[in-house]
Design goal:
This protein is of the alpha/beta class. The protein has 14 helices and 14 strands. It has helices at residues 9-25, 51-74, 92-104, 117-129, 158-171, 185-200, 218-236, 251-258, 262-265, 279-282, 285-293, 311-324, 330-349, 354-366; strands at 36-44, 79-87, 109-112, 133-136, 151-153, 176-182, 204-205, 209-211, 241-246, 268-270, 297-301, 388-396, 399-409, 414-417. The strands form three sheets. Strands 2-1-3-4-5 form a five-stranded parallel β-sheet. α2 links the parallel β1 (36-44) and β2 (79-87). α2 (51-74) crosses α12 (311-324) and α13 (330-349) crosses α14. The relative contact order is 0.13.
Amino acid sequence: MKHIFLLKPVFGIFLIQWLLFAACQKNDPVVNPVSNEIRLGAILDLSGLYSEEGKAGKAVTDAVISDINQRYQSVGSPVRFSVIYKDSGLDSIKSLAAVKELYNAGVRLLVAGPSTSADLKSIRPFIEANNILVLTCFSSAPALAIPGDNIFRIITDDNVQGRATAKMMQTDGIRAIVPVWCDDTYGNGLQETVKQHFMASGGVVYNGVKYTTGSVTFSSVLQNASEQVAEASKEFGADKVGVLLISFQDASDFFKAASTISELSSVRWYGCDANTKKVAVTDNPEAAAFALKVRFVAPIMAIGTASSVPAVARSLAARVKAVTGSDPDDMALSAYDAVMIYGQCYNLAQSSDVAVIKTLLPSVCASYNYLGISRTLNAAGDLATANYIFWTVNPNQGGWAWESYCTWFADGDYIILKP
């Protein structure tokens, strides 16, 4: 890897010094022993409904730790980064226990996770009370966009996703939607922001149905939704009605249950970043066939566009797929930048002190663009803006596959279909 950081001049000075040191050490056989370990913590769902995302995040984090440590080794530095992983199992109680265990192990910097906003919300009081810093690439709930706290997110909050989704619906000519969403911090926040943006464009939002993750009876939830869809179809016409599904990997179960309800098969469906590109859908022929029938599209924050992905991001995705067997999404790939940003902060400060890292983070993010996406933060410490790619399910070589469909461009609020 030629470059680790792409920096503005103030940070470039340090990088030049680092590279010059590397050049001086090139022929020096002496390597300093490892004596300074910077331990990070990662709370990820490795066994629950979001485990596909969590395992991808772990694989990306493993990759970046290897890369950054190789660079330190190449310059003879005694510094090494390491990560202690904790499995949340998509359980907020486990997440809180995990952060306490990490704290007792001396970890003060959390990276990549938690995998969901609900888990992040559950550990926030402990984080703030014990001066722990979080740099996450999965949580996106607007409720956690809090200026001055110890949570930084290098992905956009769901107000941006809400704009993108509402624009997609508007582009498709949808006039009324029936939302079905998980009753948690993420689901409630995203449902509300889609509702606000869709109604602002003149759309009608029905009451919909919210459900509890892990204890849902899919058929009963969808029967309720189908009654509202039938009402909306009578009022606007089925071609003007959509279902908004805010779920996790259980989207596959919803699709299978919905395939037996005629009202739900006659309207378009829209998803969210938590159910985009999930193999649980494409690995199930019944679920995939339903997704195709209802022309299901789902967005996720984009590195690049539906037509063009930066080479560095493609290369990293291939590394991760070799480990996990599936294509990581761009939120998981962002874990790479999260670790590198921590690394750059450490290099500038020569310290892993939380107060120092927190002070440096916004400036480093504003100067950082390695994978092909700016990491500039807003006043709440979240990624200021990003494009979104919408994905759909199509037949592929006797099976099913996710394919990029179009790009929503944040700068201008417009959509361009993939050629």
